[in-house]
Amino acid sequence: MTITQALIMAAGHATRMRPLTDNLPKPLLEVNHKPLLTHIIDHLIAEKVSKIIINGYHAIEPLRDYMIDIQSRYPDVKFILSEEAELLETGGGAVLALQYLDTDKPFYMINGDAFWVNPCEGPSLQSLAKTWQDKSFDIVLLLQPTSSMGLTTAVGDYDIGQGNIASRNLDKNGGYMFTGVRICTPNVLKNYKVEKFSFLKMMDEAESKGKLGGAIHHGDWYHISEPDDLNDVNRDVFGVEKT
Predict the structure, then answer these.
(1) Overall domain count for the chain
(2) Would 243 be classed as within a structural domain?
């Protein structure tokens, strides 16, 4: 089954990335001369995703301009901006965006600052979708082995057990870090109101039911949290010096 819809989370203030995000959403910061958001969209379009919802709140005007530009570049893809009147965090933002999703089909949900490089064996989103299709999960997370992370900070917030079942490691010493890339069934959103809360609540609920899956990412993924992380990835991976 091809997953044809996606939600990209781009509403947060990204305070740890200041001053770069004082007047710009973090997903519009550039890696290798291209916005993080565009890297994500390119991955999605390569997998035949035809509807992409992007939520926004902080520095909304640059994001509106970006939406006009990206729609003109990809006229066959439907782009929708889900604007928040107040910051709803990832959970409330996803519930608000539910109105734009086909509630009978799964969707990719991706943090707007996620940056990854596909492994040589194939696209990362294909690997994630395969795990989704093979198991009856409500949510499947793309998880990066902490042992493969040297350039940016690794936080072992998850483990993977038998049957690709993922579990949150509260001590942060697990073997894997959540990349901010996942597949969800819209059903996980249906019993929640549009209010401020974290999507982590839904992930924990899926885990409690044995319906939280994990797919190991064999490519590169970078935890871009602060300006130094952005500079390090640009310089060490792409040879782009700070501007």
Answers:
(1) 1
(2) no
pLDDT, tens digit, 9 for 90 and up, residues 40-69: 999 999 999 999 999 999 999 999 999 999
What is the chain's percent helix, strand, coil content, to nearest 5? 35, 25, 40
Task: Pull the structure tokens for residue 80.
Answer: 């929708």
Count of residues for the chain? 243
- Helix, strand or coil for residue 99? helix
Domain with residue 186: its CATH number is 3.90.550.10
**pTM beyond 0.70:** yes
Cα separation, 177 vs 154, whole angstroms? 7
Q: Which two tokens stand for residue 58?
A: 């902080």
- pLDDT per position as a tens digit, 183-195: 999 999 988 999 9
Judge residue 227's burial from the number of C-beta atoms within 10 Å of its C-beta, 0-12 exposed, 13-18 middle, 19 or more buried: middle
Which H/E stretch holds residue 35? strand 34-35
For β-strands 5-9 and 51-56, DSSP reports them as parallel
Contact of 203 with 141, CB cutoff 8 Å: yes
- The answer to whether 153 and 235 have CB atoms below 8 angstroms apart is no
Domain limits for position 72: 5-238
